[in-house]
């Protein structure tokens, strides 16, 4: 369906033209004085210069031509030249009824679907998931769902950090602890054991131990670097250990992401890029893209228009090991070859922006990525504690994801117990569902780029701009609908009725913004705009609810109109929270 704002602008364009003015002046925006009007056009002011006329005269001319319009109930020219617009009630309900007849709620699916890869999550294997990875997972999942809702073909790839130094560290530590294992016997020719020589618990202890040792002990660090290099170059025993690390960690990661309602289509990682690395480097050298700099192989990515220095993209260290940039470039080769993407969206901490700038430039320069593939980096800020520093545990360590979720769910359980209308078991499940909304909404309602404070009290509150408030609103609607149904009335075939008062109209005006909001959020990769929208929509609904007798309404037609509006509001809210990656319980 066409966006309402475009339909209005079209009416204005015709009126500008009919009055003898250029239709380009007919831009329409939401009103910034909702007490006076619903939409407004400031084009008369913009045109004053060109037509050498007072803006109010232009506005008057245009308003006169809008007389017969089907859209408006009221149009007015006000000083110094605003055109104030109020939509006709029937026009609004007509639009809403079309929305409700459409399974996609009036959101047009892309006519030319694009192939989009979303690279998000990015956990580092064998290291526990920590809150730093939470944002990547939450935002990336939302972007993936939104792109899909817009009708694009989308692949979400977890892009595991599984090929770097941490693997060398684990191998080195394991070798020290259990040198008798066959993986470390260079003459071993049999089959390596099928069972991993550690559990996930041990693995999570091995990594920090090794990492700590390497910082103190230079010899140990050199060994870990050497183990990393040997692993990358195909050392059989180390590859076998690596496979065990992968199996054990990936199973654990899947469980964690599952609990966050985050689902990847692809479980690829940096290691999958290895197959492309030798040929890629060979070509870079042969075609003159790469050169030696201080013992390392690099690609220059500085451009003439740069105002500051952009260091070259490092491809290979002096010891022959590959780097973060190497795997990202090689991964691009694989993605181009296997998926032919129109767009690749990367999610990572915003402090990685230089890395992505270097990789994107190197990829274009060397022709790995063709013109048609858009490369986007969506960098996000840090999640801080109330003290304004990166979120930590009470003991001061890095908070693990599982613990963070548990903390929120605990808090939710307490709040739900206070309201206590549901059975124990249901309360537990509800606490989990609502807790998830608290975490995700708390994150997504901020502009991704900004740092934000993870405030358990605020995020879990049922009031204010929070996930639980949105869910509370949906649950309220569900409860009215089920009471209506229980009274023997059908929910099918209902149509909204022209608004009976301002609160109802205000709610309608929010509902009809849905397709506009979704399109904008996708174009700008800005999920916080969906959050802001459902907050406004929930507020409009609750104002309407408090001022209106719905179930007690005696006029049947009027009541049916209300119920139709509730049904539509609920569908819009549900569709939005689905994109944000959470759901509403039946009761709370
Ligand atoms: N593993 C990285 C990290 O923990 C994030 C990976 C982001 N994706 C990429 N293709 N580089 O920071």
Structure description:
- With 588 residues, this protein is of the alpha/beta class.
- The protein has 20 helices and 13 strands.
- Helix 12 (353-365) links the parallel strand 10 and strand 11 (374-380).
- Helix 16 (467-486) runs antiparallel to helix 20 (556-580).
- The longest helix is centred in the C-terminal third of the chain and has 25 residues, at 556-580.
- The chain is globular, with a radius of gyration of 29 Å.
- The chain starts with a helix and ends in an 8-residue tail after the last helix.
- The relative contact order is 0.10.
- The structure holds arginine (ARG).
- Residues 119, 122, 124, 159, 161, 328, 346, 348 line the site of arginine.
Task: Tell me briefly what this model is.
The protein has 588 residues and is α/β, with parallel strands linked by helices. Helices cover 52% and strands 10% of the residues. β1 and β2 form a beta hairpin.
Q: How is the topology of this model organized?
A:
Blueprint: H1 4-18, E1 28-30, E2 39-41, H2 43-51, H3 55-65, E3 72-78, E4 82-87, H4 89-101, E5 115-119, H5 131-149, E6 153-157, H6 165-177, H7 200-216, H8 218-232, H9 236-259, H10 277-286, E7 290-293, E8 296-299, E9 313-316, H11 324-339, E10 343-349, H12 353-365, E11 374-380, E12 383-384, H13 401-419, H14 424-444, E13 452-453, H15 456-459, H16 467-486, H17 502-511, H18 514-523, H19 528-547, H20 556-580
Specify Rg, calculated over alpha carbons: 29 Å
Determine the number of helices (DSSP H or I, runs of at least 4 residues).
20
Overall pLDDT confidence:
94
> Span from first to last CA?
35 Å
Structural class: alpha/beta
Largest sheet: 4 strands, antiparallel
Shape: globular
The total strand number stands at 13
Question: Helical proportion?
Answer: 40-55%
Q: Are there runs of 5+ residues with pLDDT below 50, and where?
A: none
Strand arrangement across the biggest beta sheet:
1-2-4-3
Small molecules held by this entry: arginine
Strand percent estimate: 5-15%
């Amino acid at each position: 369906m066409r966006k309402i704002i475009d339909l209005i602008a079209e009416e204005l364009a015709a009126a500008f033209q009919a009055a003898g003015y250029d239709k380009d002046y007919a831009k329409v925006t939401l009103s910034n004085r909702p007490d006076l009007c619903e939409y407004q056009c400031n084009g008369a002011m913009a045109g004053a210069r060109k037509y050498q006329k007072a803006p109010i005269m232009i506005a008057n001319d245009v308003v006169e031509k809008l007389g017969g319009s089907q859209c408006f109930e009221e149009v007015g020219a006000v000083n110094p030249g605003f055109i104030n617009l109020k939509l006709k009630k029937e026009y609004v309900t007509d639009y809403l009824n079309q929305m409700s007849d459409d399974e996609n709620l009036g959101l047009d699916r892309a006519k030319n679907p694009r192939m989009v890869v979303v690279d998000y999550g990015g956990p580092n294997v064998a290291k526990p998931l920590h809150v730093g990875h939470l944002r990547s997972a939450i935002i990336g999942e939302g972007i993936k769902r939104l792109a899909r809702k817009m009708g694009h073909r989308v692949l979400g790839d977890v892009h595991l950090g599984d090929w770097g130094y941490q693997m060398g560290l684990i191998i080195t530590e394991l070798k020290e602890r259990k040198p008798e294992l066959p993986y470390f016997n260079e003459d071993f020719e049999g089959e390596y054991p099928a069972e991993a020589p550690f559990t996930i618990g041990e693995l999570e202890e091995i990594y920090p131990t090794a990492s700590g040792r390497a910082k103190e002990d230079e010899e140990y660090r050199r060994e870990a670097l050497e183990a990393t290099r040997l692993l990358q170059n195909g050392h059989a025993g180390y590859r076998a250990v690596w496979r065990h690390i992968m199996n054990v960690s990936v199973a654990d990661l899947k469980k964690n992401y599952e609990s966050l309602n985050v689902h990847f289509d692809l479980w690829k990682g940096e290691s999958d890029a290895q197959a492309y690395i030798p040929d890629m480097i060979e070509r870079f050298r042969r075609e003159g893209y790469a050169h030696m700099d201080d013992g390392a192989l690099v690609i220059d990515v500085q451009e003439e228009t740069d105002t500051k220095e952009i260091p070259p993209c490092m491809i290979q260290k002096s010891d022959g090991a590959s780097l973060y940039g190497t795997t990202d470039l090689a991964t691009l080769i694989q993605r181009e070859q296997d998926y032919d993407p129109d767009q690749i969206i990367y999610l990572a901490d915003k402090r990685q922006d230089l890395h992505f700038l270097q990789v994107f430039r190197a990829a274009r320069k060397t022709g790995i990525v063709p013109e048609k593939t858009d490369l986007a980096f969506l960098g996000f800020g840090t999640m801080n504690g109330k003290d304004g520093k990166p979120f930590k545990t009470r003991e001061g360590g890095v908070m693990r994801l599982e613990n963070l979720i548990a903390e929120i769910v605990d808090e939710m359980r307490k709040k739900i117990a206070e309201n206590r209308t549901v059975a124990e078991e249901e309360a537990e499940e509800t606490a989990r569902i609502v807790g998830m909304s608290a975490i995700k909404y708390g994150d997504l309602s901020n502009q991704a780029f900004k740092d934000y404070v993870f405030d358990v009290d605020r995020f879990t509150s049922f009031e204010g701009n929070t996930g639980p408030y949105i869910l509370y609103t949906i649950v309220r609607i569900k409860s009215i609908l089920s009471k209506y149904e229980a009274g023997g009335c059908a929910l099918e075939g209902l149509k909204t009725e022209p608004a009976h008062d301002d609160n109802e109209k205000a709610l309608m005006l929010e509902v009809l913004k849905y397709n506009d909001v979704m399109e904008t959020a996708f174009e700008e990769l800005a999920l916080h705009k969906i959050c802001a929208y459902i907050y406004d929509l929930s507020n409009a609904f609750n104002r309407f609810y408090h001022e209106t007798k719905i179930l007690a309404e005696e006029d049947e037609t009027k009541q049916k109109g209300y119920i139709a509006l509730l049904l539509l509001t609920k569908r819009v809210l549900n569709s939005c929270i689905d994109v944000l990656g959470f759901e509403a319980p039946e009761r709370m």
